[in-house]
Amino acid sequence: MLRKLDKYLVINIALLGIVSSVFIHSTVTVFPQYGVSNHGMKQAIFYVISFMVLLIMTNVDFSIWMKFRWYIYTLFLVLLLILFLAPASMTSNPNGIIREVNAAVSWFFLPGFALQPSEFMKFALILVFAAEIEKHNKKYSMQDMKTDVWLLIKLFIILAPVAFLVYKQPDTGMVVLYLAILAPMIYLSGIQRKILIFFAAIPTAIIGFVVTCYFFFHDFYQEKLLGSLSGHQISRINGWLHPFEFLDSSYQTRLGIMAIGTGQFEGKGYLGNTVYTPEKHTDFIFTTIAEEMGFLGGAFVLVLMFSLIYRIILITMQAETRMSAMIGASIATLFAFQIFQNIGMTMGLLPVTGITLPFISYGGSSLISNIMLISLVCLIKQSYDGLFFKSDTKE
Q1: Residue 395 covered by a domain
Q2: Domains identified in the chain, total number
Q3: Residue 394 within any structural domain of the chain
Q4: By residue range, what is the domain housing residue 309?
Q5: Could you tell me if 181 and 330 are in contact, meaning their C-beta atoms sit under 8 angstroms apart?
Q6: Do 158 and 125 contact (CB within 8 A), yes or no?
Q7: In whole angstroms, what is the distance from residue 95 CA to residue 143 CA?
Q8: Partner of 54 at 20 to 30 A CA spacing, among 12, 241, 343, 365?
Q9: What is the pLDDT of residue 393?
Q10: How far apart are CA 284 and CA 352, in angstroms?
């Protein structure tokens, strides 16, 4: 069973697991207001469970996962729908199975574990997107503008209900991650480049329009553009762009910058983090690492992160089928975007979102879902190692 794993990925993730457990323990020990003081031990247990999941999943033929892709997708879509339809009387119960946390309804609270369906939906979407693109390309061997547009329509039909339900939780960051999964698949699907240029031009034009309005038409920006967003989203944008004007909105950002800055080059030492930052053991775990270990510790974590991505890219480049290449590329892109967004927001370079730092932030759902993606990478490697890999996507 062990030989079906990629040893470099396993070693890399094991090192990240040590870093995660150690600094989560430090955070909750110094700041007991985060809740349970054994979060570091729980994270270590989550890593043991995740390793078992990795062993099991990499010893199941890839064709099995593809065969059940729609069942997996439907399961998590139903769970998202249940969260969306949960009445306020249920979500307001502090001891309920479904409850509101940080103004979001995103979890099922089970004994010892909080299940976040939107995290596991990443795995389902990767399987479904890859299989549908593969089936489409087999059906339309001669691709033209019409068939390419039809492929894009099918992909967005798959994504739309998921994105809507997650956006309404609200969790805009997770929706962006779904787009990060889809983008490299579309690029590698073989559709015409002029369509890719058109779709790339849309977000570029939108960003350019917003930036122009911000600098030259500030009243229109404030009243029309920001006015169309929710209060929660407006607060985060103002806290990002004007951290010293909107003090309440930028509270978390300013404390994150302070924690990282006070760590300086060598840090304050283990258990030496003194700057309290909300969600410091989850979304803002990087601030603990940078504060206690300084620039050296933060750089070490980045090296581990990008060596993981580099290994995924190396495996993907040797993939034998377009479908496996799309899967590997989407996973590498997803992790790269998560790392960039999470660390960027802790430094005030990007707006604060609910995006976690892969394999470091506290949370069983995030960790196990990421390990499930790593299992797909191991299955890709098995395809050219001659172990087993069947790309049959028949129903």
Answers
A1: no
A2: 1
A3: no
A4: 2-385
A5: yes
A6: yes
A7: 54
A8: 343
A9: 45
A10: 10
For the question of whether the overall pTM of this predicted structure is more than 0.85, the answer is yes
Give per-residue pLDDT as tens, 119-165: 999 999 999 999 999 999 888 877 778 888 899 999 999 999 999 99
Give the model confidence (pLDDT) of 254-281 as tens digits: 889 999 999 999 889 998 888 888 888 8
CA Rg value for the chain: 21
State residue 320's pLDDT score. 82
Which residue type, as a one-letter code, is found at position 291?
Answer: E
Please compute the mean of the pLDDT values over residues 83-90 and round it to a whole number: 84
All residues at 6 or more sequence positions from 80 whose CB lies less than 8 Å from its CB, including other chains: 117, 118, 121, 162, 165, 166
Residue 342 host element (H or E): helix 322-346
b/e for 92-125, b at 16 or more Cβ within 10 A? eeeeeebbbeeebbbbbeeeeeebbbbbbbbbbb
Q: Is 388 left (phi over 0), alpha (psi -120 to 50) or beta?
A: beta
Share of the chain above pLDDT 70, in %: 94
Chain centroid offset of residue 344 CA:
14
Per DSSP, the three-state class of 128 is: helix
User: CB–CB of 389/379 below 8 Å?
Assistant: yes
Q: What angle do CA 291, 293, 298 make, to 5 degrees?
A: 85
* SS3 assignment, position 104: strand
Per DSSP, the three-state class of 215 is helix
Considering the domain boundaries, does residue 392 fall inside one? no
Distance CA 376, CA 54 (A): 9
Band (pLDDT 50/70/90 cuts) for residue 392 is: very low
Q: Could you tell me how many helices (H) and strands (E) the chain has, helices first?
A: 15, 2
Interval 297-343: pLDDT, tens: 999 999 999 999 999 999 999 888 889 999 999 999 999 999 999 99
**387 has pLDDT over 70:** no
* CB-neighbour burial class of residue 21 (10 A; exposed 0-12, middle 13-18, buried 19+): buried
* Residue of 66, 19, 62, 25 whose CA lies nearest to 42: 25
Exposed/middle/buried for residue 207 (C-beta within 10 Å: 0-12, 13-18, 19+): exposed
pLDDT of residue 35: 63
Degrees to nearest 5, angle at CA 284 with 6 and 54: 20
Q: What pLDDT score does 34 carry?
A: 66
Q: How far apart are CA 82 and CA 98, in angstroms?
A: 9
Q: What is the pLDDT of residue 21?
A: 94
Q: What is the dihedral of CA 109, 110, 113, 117, to 10 degrees?
A: -60
| 391 assigned to some structural domain | no
Pairing of strands 113-115, 108-110: antiparallel
